[in-house]
Specification:
The chain is mostly helical. The radius of gyration is 21 Å and the shape is globular.
């Protein structure tokens, strides 16, 4: 890490700037509704992804009747397509406004998660195809949500003290971790509630039905909730000379890298 980062200049504190107390900074961010709607979106998406990964190994064995190698293929398909979606995100952003693109991708993720329920009754390769579509759309979301978060963090309202970008990013990171944790806890608790028997033994018919919905319908519901939060986000389409006053000026280091 040191060898990779040693040549990158560090942004210096502006002359005369002062640190705001923690509570004052947090209070100042509460007026930024767009940022918190984005954070709720990210939390819901990550919780749904954690549910998907929590159920997938058991669904692969008991529902899809796949082997350990098939589980590796499922994970590889998802991982590769997410990376492909991330590389395609800049092209998508050039054609669509980022929040609109995320809304369309969120609809696509929810739709293909629902189709995975139907695919679970079909050959395994159909599930691979549905999961690949989920990965592509998720990769685009993963890149565009970062850009949208930076835009939302720079928004200011009249009479509200500006808060440092790092403080906003710390809140977003906490939201990501919280979403992952809640999804992981919920998947484990749900497996217990539906009567899942660990150890590779046979499962009841009702447990199998829950396993089938646990990696399809349940993540889809989280994704739908994420879409509801994203629908409330209203960010400027682009920084214009008139609208530029609503955005905090970029630090000199960021302007140089732009």
């Amino acid at each position: 890490f040191y060898l990779a980062m040693r040549g990158i200049p560090v942004a210096r504190r502006a002359a005369g700037s002062e640190d705001m107390p923690l509570l004052a900074s947090l209070k100042a961010t509460l007026t930024n509704r767009d940022f918190y709607f984005l954070m709720a979106f990210v939390m819901s998406v990550n919780a749904g992804a954690s549910m998907l990964f929590g159920f997938m190994p058991f669904a692969n064995h008991y529902v899809l009747l796949g082997s350990a190698g098939d589980l590796g293929v499922l994970e590889a398909v998802l991982g590769v397509t997410v990376l492909l979606g991330m590389t395609a995100a800049p092209q998508v952003a050039r054609r669509l406004e980022p929040v609109r693109a995320m809304r369309l991708c969120t609809v696509a993720v929810a739709a293909f998660l629902g189709l995975m329920l139907l695919a679970s009754f079909l050959p395994l390769w159909v599930t691979w195809g549905m999961l690949a579509c989920v990965g592509l759309a998720s990769g685009v979301i993963g890149v565009l949500v970062q850009a949208s978060t930076l835009t939302a963090a720079r928004l200011t309202a009249p009479g509200v003290v500006a808060v440092s970008l790092g403080f906003y990013l710390g809140i977003m990171l906490a939201g990501i971790k919280l979403g992952n944790s809640l999804g992981g806890i919920a998947s484990g608790e749900l497996l217990q509630l539906v009567g899942f028997v660990p150890g590779g033994g046979p499962q009841s018919a009702s447990t199998l039905r829950w396993l089938r919905t646990g990696y399809t319908v349940v993540p889809m519901l989280f994704t739908i909730a994420a879409g509801v939060f994203l629908h409330r986000v209203r960010l400027p389409r682009q920084a214009t000379p008139d609208a530029g006053a609503a955005l905090d000026p970029l630090p000199a280091l960021e302007r140089g890298l732009a």
